[in-house]
Amino acid sequence: MYTLSSPTVLATDAACHPAARDLLATLSATFRLTDAALTHLGLAVLDVAPGERAAAWRALDGLDARTPTTPTLLRTASHGGPGSARTLARSRLGRVTDVVRLVTREAAAWPDAPGVAVSGGDVVPASAAAAAGVVGVWWTSPGLAARDALVLGRPWHAGLGKVEVPLVEPRESHGPRADAVADLCGALARREVTLDRLAEVGWPPGRWARAMHAGAWAAYGTGRLRAQLVAVLDVTAALVGAEPDPDPVLLRAALPPLHALTVAAVVGDVLDAEPLAELHLGAAAL
Prior knowledge:
This protein has 286 residues and is an all-alpha fold. It is built from 16 helices and two strands. Strands 1-2 form a two-stranded antiparallel sheet. The protein starts with 6 loop residues before the first helix and ends in a 7-residue tail after the last helix.
């Protein structure tokens, strides 16, 4: 559901989440951990009683299981059930298990051996469990009980609090064209690119998907999949941060052109001319 090669799916679901700013920032941070941060995270998880941790994960999984996904809401609406565009826009395609699995498998080269159970029953390194825990807390916010949120989120905050430079700077995580990504983030912060203008950009059927697929292959071929994911998360966060209370329906309409511009920024130097031109259609919002 959520993969390195399709960061727009994750970023869009996170952007429309009630805790979007914290969720996007945390997801980005899990992919920018330093070696020192990883060591401290692993030690911090071991300070939590296994029984407490397991109970908190069960509570988190139970809450997530009761939250309808986008496919569930679409099936309900298709059978004549009550529907709301805003509710649908706020929904997410995947479950917490899906996003936890992405983090624990892809976010870092975890230095410790697997030994801690997380959402879905996967047993992962302790440092990975710390990252997964804080992501899970924000993913299920605001419904998760305060005690369970504390148990799962505490190792992250305790571990990073012991490290002077816990994260790699975003510009160092955006690949060789980091300046282009920074320029896009800056334009959003200055509101030179706005939600309304982005939402007006459209593509003929199928062309956006083909261009984005070409971008993903270019990122894969040049070793920039991680850079692409972090850039998409950070640019999405810049848009959400510039809007006081973005309407989720409008936000979902605005994100495809914004993500196209982000992918063009990340791999524009290695992408063929035709898909690059397609991705740059979002420049109409500049």
